[in-house]
Amino acid sequence: MGNREKESTPRLVDNTADLRRAVADARAAGKTIGLVPTMGALHEGHLSLVRASRAECDLTVVTIFVNPTQFGPHEDLEKYPRTLENDLRLLAGEGADLAFAPPREALYPAGFSTYVDPPDVALTLEGKCRPGHFRGVTTIVLKLFNLAQAHVAYFGQKDYQQARVIDRMVHDLDVPIIIRVCPIVRESDGLAMSSRNRYMNPAERDKALALWRCLTAARDLVASGQRDAATVATGMRAVLQEREVTRIDYAALADPDTLQPVTTIEGPTMALVAAHVGKTRLIDNLRLEP
Ligand code: AMP
User: Which of 10, 119, 129, 159 is the most exposed place for a label (fewest CB within 10 A)?
Assistant: First the structure.
């Protein structure tokens, strides 16, 4: 069992050469590799991905890197929480084998200038609100796939569009890796776990629940027979506004594959929301099955 026992600290690697060597050794020994890309400030959502990898793969590699290219110029790159010591402690508790936490220059050395042009599914929703975001995501994720040489990579449904973008990229660019998308882990009241939740004070934390409430309202409307997407979206907005969440980036119904807007809810449909609570931008989503 060795490194599969819980409470053994994962090996910490901060450079690409050591990562390449570790995964090459694992592959040579016939091990399967699972990759969990994160930006750190780990919580139960991240740990659920680690567990999924541990259940399926022999070696679990968790990357911790606050990727500058996916942040807009006025976003929270500088203040994004960095909690490496605690992250390593949590990963030890889950039996992760290797933590790759490189400095920025290790992945973006001087002269770096090649980017992945994201697929069409990146054009709506988050892609519209955060220009350049998915270009940063596809670029870093492809780099991590190339470095980690994993058989399987684990992502959360929390970032639903991101998972669709990566799935499409892997398909379009023939990247030999399996993408698994794991369910959203929520607090007991329904708030989706997020590293950004720690930005909020108690009053904001209270308000933030409006996102989950607006998604469940959409689910209830559809369950009661409502099929008009505009009506459901209006209902979602009303719930947000009632709870004084007024800076809404979108509250939308979209096709689960393309993320294009739907007008009539005929089959499985994604309800997606992005809104600001105080200075914190939050996203959430729920799959609706009419
Ligand atoms: P992040 O560190 O926010 O970039 O997230 C790293 C990975 O964890 C992404 O695949 C996220 O979708 C996933 N993730 C974040 N929050 C959750 C959550 N509450 N439940 C499940 N997965 C999550």
Answer: 129
Ligand 1 mean position to 118 CA, how many Å?
A: 20
- Distance, CA of 205 to chain centre: 20
Q: What is the pLDDT along the chain (290 residues), one digit of tens a residue?
A: 444 455 789 999 999 999 999 999 999 999 999 999 999 999 999 999 999 999 999 999 999 999 999 999 999 999 999 999 999 999 999 999 999 999 999 999 999 999 999 999 999 999 999 999 999 999 999 999 999 999 999 999 999 999 999 999 999 999 999 999 999 999 999 999 999 999 999 999 999 999 999 999 999 999 999 999 999 999 999 999 999 999 999 999 999 999 999 999 999 999 999 999 999 999 999 999 99
Ligand 1: distance of its center to the CA of 36 in Å? 9
3-state secondary structure 62-128: EEECCCHHHCCCCCCCCCCCCCHHHHHHHHHHHCCCEEECCCHHHHCCCCCCCCCCCCHHHCCCHHH
> Which residue out of 130, 159, 199, 283 has the highest number of ligand 1 atoms within 8 Å of its CB and is therefore the one to mutate?
159
Q: Is 46 a catalytic residue?
A: yes
Choose one of 35, 36, 38, 199 to mutate for the ligand 1 pocket test, by most ligand atoms within 8 angstroms of C-beta. Answer: 38
